[in-house]
Amino acid sequence: MYLEKLRKYKVAILTEKFIPFYQSFIVGSDEEVMGFTALLKEEGLYLLFIAQLKRHLLFEFLPAKLREVCKRDYHLEKAYQLSQMHTITRMLAQVDSPKIFFKGIVLNHWLRTDVYKRSCDIDFLIKEKDIDKTVEQLEYLGFVKKKRVVPYGEFPMIKGKNLVLDVHYNINASSPYSKVFHFSGDDFFKALCEIEIDGVAIPTFSLEMTFIHLCLHFIINHQASFFIQFYELMAFLRNNEAAMDTEKLLELCRKHKVENLLLIVLYMIRSFDPKVGQILFDLLLISPDVNRLRIEKFVCKKDMPSRVVDQSLHVSQLSLSPVVLDSFAKKLYALYGYCFINAKVLYMTLKGEWSFSHKNQNALKS
Fewer Cβ neighbours under 10 Å: the N or C end of the chain? Predict the structure, then answer.
């Protein structure tokens, strides 16, 4: 019962029909209401539920017990975000190497919301040549570099028990992706803007580069199936499509060879709301580098959109990898004409278990 309700909840979020869903949700018994709320917590979708309640001014219509719990949890998350904002402010003042903040609080700004998921770390990008200087200055602020295996292009620095920085010098999860999509960390420094949060100017990606990064992150890091990342893409387009420079976006797509990947995302988005991304979708369709027939075959069986709403945190990545990733590698092969990474390596890379040793790099070529 709860899993079917969870699916309806996800579809209601994506199709902008949360109020009708809420009306059916609230008439259940107290046990049903609290049981479904507990499931949302397990699935990592509880804060998104709170965000929708706030957006539609529904907080005061909750049962008293649940209302107090939701308000408490909202304020706890706000306090955590304020501590992250304090850290960003100190970094801007005391770490002088160029840096770009993304995801987390910055993405909240673009989505016009303050709380919708737990931000476990602060992500920022630096230039590879500045790694040593940045680490030294962060150590002065009390952070410690942790030696553990993480995806290519990043490393964590930790202060205390809960404050984690993800220091990136490349955005993609593995070196082969950078080569296929013609990305390097420096490319992102060529498409910058500043946003203001709590009176602080924060450097981040331009709107156009943010959308490209979200698409890459959704498909490459999350196998085009994680609901919260897909929600971010839809909410980002709904809030920023009119402000994006379409010509600049198309130029970046051509330069970095990502037209096909963006079109896949837009096909999926438009299966839930045809009004979102219409202009960009039409322009990408006539791009000479887009293989429309292959992409339609890839998406239009509706397996991709349904995977977004059916994906569950209770299904282990390990059990899905033989099916999902083998299939996913073949789909990438169909788009790009050569298999630049096999499914096993792709899976291990995404899980942070692949070491790009000389031996393993040779394995990629075979």
Answer: C
